[in-house]
Amino acid sequence: xxxxxxxxxxxxxxxxxxxxxxxxxxxxxxxxxxxxxxxxxxxxxxxxxxxxxxxxxxxxxxxxxxxxxxxxxxxxxxxxxxxxxxxxxxxxxxxxxxxxxxxxxxxxxxxxxxxxxxxxxxxxxxxxxxxxxxxxxxxxxxxxxxxxxxxxxxxxxxxxxxxxxxxxxxxxxxxxxxxxxxxxxxxxxxxxxxxxxxxxxxxxxxxxxxxxxxxxxxxxxxxxxxxxxxxx
Length: 232
Hints:
0% strand; elongated
């Protein structure tokens, strides 16, 4: 029979393991939120119209992005279960990439279709063109954004969270730099206003997805023994 002290010790070790794994994941989620905060701050400093436009456009776009990302959330449990059963997960890696791109394409088409009905929500005339433009450009970032989420979920099943979080933190600074440069036309860049915010968002999501894919290339090539990703 286990004593109370033994049970408490087990619960303590279990809790510490959970915190060690969830801590970096929590940090990554918070970093994702900071990217949006940077958009709002830059837009607010540009103009009231820019702030209003990006607030509406982001709310609409992120509705689709979060729905699509929710479909990516199934990747980690499936991979984790296979690992627990000591079955190979190698075929799932390529499937993960194809799955993210397929879902990205579907939601890309849905967003493009929804653009035709943005006017039905009763936007002010000065906001409407900016909102449509932002969503139009940002829709192309669905592919890179979902690729990043999918690969992050795959790596998370192997308790690999530090590099994806590093990429997210890097995205914060890249996004802030591009926002300032493209919105206000600094450092040789043209002044694009709200369009600049959308382009920055597209670049950041695409770069994030490509960065994580490059990180996973050893596994894609079948070199599973490389220490860079620790996937068996």
